[in-house]
Amino acid sequence: MLLAKIVGTVVATRKDPGLVSSKLLIVRPVDPKGKAEGSYLVAVDTVDAGVGETVLIVSGSSARMATGMKDCPIDAAIVGIVDTIDVPS
What we know:
Helices cover 0% and strands 37% of the residues. By secondary structure, the protein is an all-beta fold. The protein has one domain (2-81): CATH 2.40.50.220. Strands 1-2-3-5-4 form a 5-stranded mixed barrel.
């Protein structure tokens, strides 16, 4: 599971039938302090997240276990919206 920030949206008028009516968002992994790290990903939104929010991402076979994504051709799914992060110093 990764922390990521939503930085944009993707519009695809033609896509796999399993992805019809799914929202696709561009995310960038972040560290617990919010600093960007890693490459951008396109993830399927399963929790109605929006641009600017910090979210939890699962990838690989775990992404296909997200609600409503069984047997869909996805590699990343947004499965949670982060309210707060507390990292003791």
